[in-house]
Amino acid sequence: MDTRVAVAKKALEKNGYLDLEVDPLMDLFAEIERLKREKNAIVLAHYYQDADIQDVADYLGDSLGLSQQAAGTDADIIVFAGVHFMAETAKILCPEKKVLLPDLRAGCSLADSAPADAFKKFKAQYPDHIVISYINCTAEIKALSDIICTSSNAEKIIESLPPEQKIIFAPDKNLGAYLRKKTGRDMVLWNGSCMVHEIFSLEKLTRLKVRHPEAKVIAHPECEEAVLRVADYVGSTTGLLKFAMKDDAPAYIVVTETGILHQMQKNCPEKTFIPAPPDNSCACNDCPHMKLNTLEKLYLCMEYETPEIIMDEQLRLAAKRPIDRMLEISARYGL
Ligand code: SF4
């Protein structure tokens, strides 16, 4: 093996990715396409990835669509352009496939807000409750859950349970509060949140609405309740995209991670999409974890087939059970 590559592989644990120089003249789009063909690989990308990565993906979607794609693919290698829990979910569903993540450090503040030991103690306080966990959690939390959900199917999953069934919802307290209000169900919430969706400023959003009276506000349910209250539409990332495509407003203030604006603009070139302002000095609301992936790192992980997601088999099987329940309920409702 080339010494440069051997050194980069050795430093993988520290860096989280293969720190190798890529020829700046290389056509990365063409190279990634070649590697897909040669290795029977598929690139699955989340809507919050950079535009370049979205454009090179075979499938683009939110957590529900991505896990359905992972479960159904016949590729030998799944390259997951997203964050760690998403690639881990793909590995849980497809143990026989090689699952690659361009940068292993691409974590998630929401998943980190639910450590397994603390959650186990919390769960023990409510023995007659069923645990529904949002897919944005670690494999350990999935293994402690009864059903997994995404923002696309959470409402249907809750409604599929008998009305008297008590529920623990984890890890996102904002999504949980939104669902509790929508479904009227008895739900105990774990106190976790996403750093990107919690940062939107209601004050700045209100000022932006005054400046753009023609624009509708569309928001992700991971946002705080005060922000959701002023939204014209609340939905999952895919839900927001579909709403913008079928609705007739000329402009939208989009209250979620900015990556989705690329697809909105591509699908509705005649409409204006304005990112909602965060409550910090920076004007952007990018997810720093999602944005750790780059086209260069994507190419390198495909070329050298590392970093790879490796899982303990017992944990994988325990985490798979509630995901299977989610996929089965989603299929039943045609989601
Ligand atoms: S946007 Fe929030 S929930 Fe999504 S990966 Fe980033 S930190 Fe996690």
Describe the structure.
- The protein has 335 residues and is α/β, with parallel strands linked by helices.
- It folds into three domains: 3-107 and 290-312, Rossmann fold; 110-194 and 316-332, NadA-like (Rossmann fold, 3-Layer(aba) Sandwich); 202-275, NadA-like (Rossmann fold), CATH 3.40.50.10800.
- The chain is 44% helix and 15% strand.
- The protein has 17 helices and twelve strands.
- The chain has a four-stranded parallel β-sheet, with helices on both faces.
- Helix 13 (225-229) links the parallel strand 9 and strand 10.
- It is globular and about 60 Å long.
- The structure holds iron/sulfur cluster (SF4).
Shape: globular
The CATH H-level homologous superfamily of the largest domain? NadA-like
* Strand line-up across the major sheet: 2-1-3-4
Mean pLDDT: 93
- Overall tally of domains: 3
Number of helices: 17
Rg estimate, integer Å:
20 Å
Percent of residues in β-strands: 5-15%
Indicate the structural class.
alpha/beta
The CATH topology of the largest domain: Rossmann fold
Order of helices and strands: HHHEHEHEHEHHEHEHEHEHEHEHEHEHH
- What hetero molecules are bound to the protein chains? iron/sulfur cluster
> What is the count of β-strands?
12
InterPro entries: NadA (IPR003473), NadA_sf (IPR036094), Quinolinate_synth_type2 (IPR023066)
Cofactor: [4Fe-4S] cluster
Protein name: Quinolinate synthase
Pfam families: NadA
Topology:
Layout: H1 3-10, H2 12-15, H3 28-39, E1 41-46, H4 51-56, E2 59-61, H5 63-72, E3 77-81, H6 84-93, E4 98-100, H7 109-112, H8 116-124, E5 129-134, H9 139-143, E6 147-149, H10 154-159, E7 166-170, H11 173-183, E8 187-189, H12 202-211, E9 215-219, H13 225-229, E10 233-234, H14 237-246, E11 251-255, H15 260-267, E12 272-275, H16 295-304, H17 313-332
Parallel strand pairs: 1-2, 1-3, 3-4, 5-6, 5-7, 7-8, 9-10, 9-11, 11-12
Helix pairs in contact: 3-16, 5-6, 6-17, 14-15
Bound molecules: iron/sulfur cluster.
The site of iron/sulfur cluster has 13 residues, from helix 7.
Protein name: Quinolinate synthase
Cofactor: [4Fe-4S] cluster
Family: Belongs to the quinolinate synthase family. Type 2 subfamily.
